[in-house]
Amino acid sequence: MRNVPAVPPRRSEDRRGWLSGAPPPRWVRALPLALVVAVCAATLVSHDPLDIGFLLGAIPPLAVLSYSPLATALLGGAVVALLNIPAFQLDRPGNTDLLTVVFVSVLSVFVSFVRSRRDAQLTLERTVAEAAQHAVVPPLPELVGAVRCTGLYRAAQRGTLVGGDFFDVRDGPFGIRAVMGDVQGHGLAAVSTVASLLGAFREAVLDQPDLVSVAARLDRRLLVDSAGSRHAELFATAALLEFSADAREVRVVVCGNPPPLLLRGTRASEVEVAPWTPLGLGLADAGTIEAATVALRPGDRLFLASDGVVEARNAGGAFYPLAERLAAFAAGESAGLVERVWEDLVGFCPDVDDDVTMLVLTPPVPPGR
Question: Which of 62, 67, 86, 154 makes a 20 to 30 Å CA pair with 204?
């Protein structure tokens, strides 16, 4: 089975600016060399001596931004050599103080060494953090049982892979079950609650015979976690799905979360389900929550989205018309559907400040149909 990331490849791109710890862009690395070429070319082309040798003193500090200590030292040595080449006449007009340039070069090498050690430490810490976050929300398999899955996750907090949203799809003895939810808050502060709920869901998939009992287990998990912290008041919204063995039906439970959308041909409509209160309020009594049963046809798809999608607003205050846009995109393949919605969402609301999660589930075509 081939795994595809729950976060698409473009998500792995570094969202940090280069001034915030990301690798510097190519033009920053090219600056020292470009400055050397520009100064040398200007002095060779000019008929009169130019007092621009002082510009070469900026090369070692510029090298600190992107070069190793050894490369910085080599560039510093090249600067000193250029100041002493008669053809360039860089040591005459400005009476450049070579000792100052040498001192700046040595200091730049030291700063480059410190920066390199810091970057190595930050890279290690980021690698560990990403591994920990992937452990919380592991890559989503392309297939769970016979259900095809496509997901997208955009955390609101820059530089993180996990926020307050969560989703998972698991196969168990009682069928294929999926969950999508949003915990109180977002960003790294909500990751512990996300990890707790996902752990409870994965256990419930194996133990609980029906979907309502799975919701009750998640509700109890939040109640227990809240009891251990004074004034925690943890809660989460969630939508849970369970496919029948013959893929002719899907059962849905919604606890404060936007209901799933059923894509049938080029139409997108909300699944009619009686909503229940969010998880963690102690109200998820297995006898009161109702699971809606939806008959499936060949080619049907289920689209789940978090609050970050359905509650996104443009500059005029209008909500993102998810069902309308899905109908326009439904003709394409499921694999690219979430990316098309994401690009359209960013165009509609450029300043998305909440976690954004989308999940497309495509059940198999039942035998004999």
Answer: 154
CA 356/CA 70 separation, integer angstroms: 44
**pLDDT, tens digit (0-9, with 9 covering 90-100), for 85-130:** 777 766 654 455 677 888 889 999 999 999 889 888 888 877 776 7
Do 184 and 234 meet the contact criterion of CB atoms below 8 Å apart? yes
pLDDT score of 171: 93
**Neighbouring C-beta atoms of residue 277, cutoff 10 Å:** 16
Long-range contacts of 204-208 (CB under 8 A, 24+ apart): 205/170, 205/171, 205/172, 205/174, 205/177, 206/172, 206/173, 208/174
Radius of gyration of the chain (CA): 29
Question: With contact defined as beta carbons under 8 Å apart, do 332 and 343 qualify?
Answer: no
Residue written as token pair 């079950």: 177
CA dihedral 292→215→264→306, nearest 10 degrees, is 130
pLDDT for residue 48: 76
Chain segment 201-226, per-residue pLDDT in tens: 999 999 999 999 999 999 999 888 88
Reference 156, options 197, 200, 191, 196; nearest CA is 191
The burial class, CB within 10 Å (0-12 / 13-18 / 19+), for 301 is buried
- CB count within 10 Å of CB 266 equals 11
